[in-house]
Every structure is written in C-alpha cells, then in structure tokens.
C-alpha cells in the first residue's frame, strides 16, 4: 500500500515585503530566532566575536552578542584591534562560555534521557495499573499472582464488614 505525502513540505517563498501585518510579525519572530541561532553557531564554531542588532517592524530592538556586548562594540569602534588585556578577557570569557555551553548540553542530554525514561515508566505503569481489566488468559504469572492477592484481600475485607 503506497502512502502519499499529505503536505507539500518546506516551500520557498518569494522574498518580498509581507503586506499582512500579523504575518509580518510572525515571520519576523521566526526569522529573528533563526538569525540569532546562526550567529550563535558562527561564534561557537569559529570562535568569532559576533554582534547583531535587529529592530522589529514595531521598532522594538533585539540584540545578540558573543562573548558579550562590551568587547564586541569596543573592538568594532577601535577598528578591529584590541589590547592584550582585552584579548585575555575575551579569551577567558569565550572559554567560560564554551564550558558553560558544554555543561548545558550535557544537562540537556541527561534531561532528555530522563524524559524518555519517564515515558517508558509511564507506559509500564499504565500496563500494570490496568492488569485487572485484561482477560485472565492474557495475564502473565506475576499479574495472576497480583490478582489472587487482590482477590484474597478483597474477600478478607468483605468478611470483616459482615
């Protein structure tokens, strides 16, 4: 049986002014996030100092700097050069940011693992919680033993009531 694609997938759009105001705002927001992500990747991959200012269609300013605004702006204003102290500070800052990013990545990986583990445990728990709804023929040995214990406890509780 052939399954056909239900969507057109990623499509190219014409690069022209977006007339609808709400579409313009949504596009700006998405593209700004992508632009900042690329700037971050460039700074990480190439150890480049990056400074980026963007103003939204409403005039709200957004910025991205790596390692931080001060060294990037001072370096830009001084024509690209920096004194030795500033270079050392930038190198230290860049190294520290890289270390922190690596820590964040590791923590993110651990979080992803724990989320996956939680899903697996939820699935196991869901199966175990509803064992009593399954036909007896479908229960495994452990579930049958749980059913017998449950029934005996229920029987005992009922006898106590009468």
From TrEMBL:
Quick one: signal sequence residues? none
Q: Which domain of life is it from?
A: Eukaryota
Protein's name according to its UniProt entry: Agamous-like MADS-box protein AGL61
The cellular component terms of Gene Ontology attached to this UniProt record, alphabetical and capped at eight, are: nucleus
Q: Which InterPro entries match?
A: TF_MADSbox, TF_MADSbox_sf
Q: Tell me the lineage of the source organism.
A: Eukaryota, Viridiplantae, Streptophyta, Embryophyta, Tracheophyta
Q: List the coiled-coil residues.
A: none
Chief location of this protein within or outside the cell: nucleus
Is the tRNA processing keyword given for this protein?
no
One MF term in GO for this entry?
Answer: DNA binding
Q: Which organism is it from?
A: Salvia divinorum
What does the UniProt entry say about where the protein is found?
Nucleus
